[in-house]
Amino acid sequence: MSSEESSVENGIKNVLQVKNLEWWKNINKELEIVDLQQVINKDIFCSQGTKPLPRKHAPNNPNSSWVPLMGLPMALYDDMWISQLTELQRESLKISKDPFPWMKLVTT
Q1: How far apart are CA 105 and CA 107, in angstroms?
Q2: Exposure string (b/e) for 16-48, b if CB count within 10 Å is 16 or more?
Q3: What is the pLDDT of residue 96?
């Protein structure tokens, strides 16, 4: 997902304002589970690199300029966005006919 880091000084922590990808299926709940696990189970994630930051998902966040990725399974495209495309636009996405195996994520 695309995002902009908002940085405020004086002890206030950073928050990522997630840009909206109109063509991408909403998987915010799944990403929140992964983000939460990075905070709870620090020992299973690498300590190097960027530390996890809270993400702000909101409909009024700015839209991303990323073009739609080609070749993804249909399950990863937003249903409403796909329905507004012409047949030629859908064909140009080269949507994979392979099923996408969704997994149920459970945390304790």
Answers
A1: 7
A2: bebbbbebbbeeeeeeeeebeeeeeeeeeeeee
A3: 96
